[in-house]
Specification:
The protein has ten helices and 16 strands. It is α+β, with helices and mostly antiparallel strands. Strands 3, 4, 5, 6, 14, 15 and 16 form a seven-stranded mixed β-sheet that branches.
Length: 323
């Protein structure tokens, strides 16, 4: 049995959702596809697919095998690409994971440009604010905003995002516009909690004073969320202050839907980083995406700090945190 060919057939069946559609796309008889899958299952000693007359779904072992098979075939393609002519266009599938707001507001509108430049690349985009295991879930590269803890991933920092503190006009009509960070506490202002479980002590908002000295104000929380869209929606509903990237806040500020609070004490910039599993050689498609995304960030997100796009920080390991 040609195990690589069997893996490719298995992945095509999973992608197509049926043996018939997979057979048509591969130009093979349906019976051949079915026999190859049975032979693969017999070789592995486990069932990969639950099949009925109406539907097909992966078993738990099938889910695990799918992730490993995709990674193996991708690594094989990358190895072969090392020996192809340097000018050959990148090809293949690239799986990325990005925070929700960046995926919807930044990447999706710009994708026609990327796909026109690299027509041989197929993108699979996971849009989530939750941490993901890049290796276990077969993700090639992730975009993360915020501080990073230790992990076995390579981090390539693109720069840092300016931030703004914002509130809804209706909220400020009730609570007043503060003149200083200390006034937030004195006047009983509220914050929308985000990302981490609340410990009963409220949410900390960070500021940089005119002299550059950082300070943190802890405000009471009446609602906490784990999703960026809901975080913003709660602010617009007048439930408290939030801090978000300035590029993301700007259209809402211009439309009068939000008001910037304490512009003289902006929050510290938040780092934006590309994370990917450590490999000796990066695939051409991964290099193509990271270069394109770095340029997009610098053009649209007003990054501050050193431009480290293209500088691999191989010794810096990072854990995942949604942004």
């Amino acid at each position: 049995m040609d195990r690589l060919a069997a893996m490719e057939i298995f992945l095509r069946v999973v992608e197509a959702g049926s043996f018939g559609r997979a057979a048509d796309s591969l130009g093979l008889p349906r019976s051949t596809v079915s026999l190859r899958i049975r032979a693969l299952e017999a070789h592995l000693g486990t069932r990969l697919l639950h099949r009925t007359t109406r539907r097909m779904r992966l078993t738990l072992d099938g889910e695990a095998f799918r992730a490993r098979a995709e990674r193996l075939l991708a690594d094989l393609a990358e190895t072969e690409a090392l020996f192809r002519p340097p000018g050959e266009a990148p090809r293949g599938r690239l799986r990325i994971d990005v925070p929700g707001r960046i995926g919807r507001r930044l990447i999706a509108p710009a994708l026609p440009d990327f796909l026109a430049r690299y027509p041989g690349i197929t993108l699979e985009i996971g849009v989530t604010d939750r941490p993901v295991d890049l290796v276990a879930e077969g993700v090639d590269v992730a975009v993360r905003v915020g501080p990073l803890a230790e992990s076995g991933l390579v981090a390539r920092r693109l720069g840092a995002l300016r931030q703004a503190s914002c509130a809804a006009p209706a909220y400020l009509a009730r609570h007043g516009l503060p003149a200083s960070p200390e006034a937030l506490v004195a006047a009983g202002h509220l914050a929308v909690g985000y990302g981490v479980p609340q410990d009963g002590r409220g949410a900390a908002l960070d500021f940089l004073g005119p002299d550059g000295v950082p300070m943190a104000m802890r405000l009471p929380v009446v609602v906490a969320v784990d999703d960026a869209e809901t975080y913003l929606a709660c602010c617009r509903a007048g439930l408290g202050l939030i801090q978000l990237p300035a590029y993301d806040a700007r259209p809402l500020l211009q439309a009068g839907l939000l008001v910037e609070v304490l512009p003289g004490w902006p929050p510290p910039p938040m780092p934006i980083t590309l994370l990917y599993p450590a490999r000796r050689h990066l695939s051409r498609r991964l290099r193509a995406f990271t270069g394109w995304f770095g340029t997009l960030c610098r053009a649209r997100m007003e990054l501050v700090g050193p431009d480290l796009a293209g500088t691999e920080m191989a010794e810096r390991k990072a854990a995942e945190r949604g942004g």
